[in-house]
């Protein structure tokens, strides 16, 4: 059972990286790129819909949403492109790094923090 689970986890990791490569490929349709960007950003982002510190539910989104998104992208990307990207992902051991994605994540956190601070200030003035 553990060996099957490890294979599945490696396949998810490989397909996430393959999706990253497929998004950059000119042969990938725009709608597959759009879905791929969302899936890769969510998979690599430290921000989850359900925080990981919540028992069981925290990892549920990672176990359901990421594989479901990858499944959709794999269906949308042309088979030949996805196979090339999977081969490239298996050969690559480096995790993709995007300064733009990092900047977007930091910007999201700053906006959330600013909105939280403004809400607290408004509550303090009214309450």
Provide structural commentary.
With 127 residues, the chain is mostly helical. The chain is 78% helix and 0% strand. The protein has helices spanning 2-24, 30-44, 57-76, 79-91, 99-126. Helix 1 (2-24) crosses helix 2 and helix 1 packs across helix 4 (79-91). The longest helix has 28 residues, at 99-126. The chain is globular, with a radius of gyration of 18 Å. The N and C termini lie far apart (56 Å).
Please tell me the overall pLDDT. 85
Q: Please tally the helical runs, counting DSSP H or I stretches of 4 or more residues.
A: 5
Stretches with pLDDT under 50, minimum 5 residues? none
- The structure class reads mainly alpha
Q: Domain count, please report it.
A: 2
Q: How much helical structure, as a percent, in the residues?
A: over 70%
Rounded Rg: 18 Å
The largest pleated sheet is described as: none
Helices and strands, in N-to-C order?
A: HHHHH
How much beta, percentage-wise? under 5%
DSSP E strands, number: 0
């Amino acid at each position: 059972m553990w060996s099957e689970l490890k294979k599945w986890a490696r396949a998810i990791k490989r397909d996430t990286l393959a999706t990253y490569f497929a998004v950059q490929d000119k042969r990938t349709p725009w709608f597959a790129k759009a879905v791929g960007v969302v899936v890769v950003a969510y998979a690599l982002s430290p921000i989850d819909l359900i925080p990981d510190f919540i028992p069981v539910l925290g990892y549920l989104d990672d176990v359901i949403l990421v594989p479901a998104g990858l499944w959709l992208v794999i269906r949308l990307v042309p088979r030949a492109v996805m196979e090339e990207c999977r081969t490239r992902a298996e050969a690559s051991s480096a995790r993709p790094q995007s300064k733009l994605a990092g900047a977007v994540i930091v910007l999201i956190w700053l906006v959330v923090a600013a909105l939280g601070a403004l809400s607290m200030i408004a509550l303090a003035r009214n309450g």
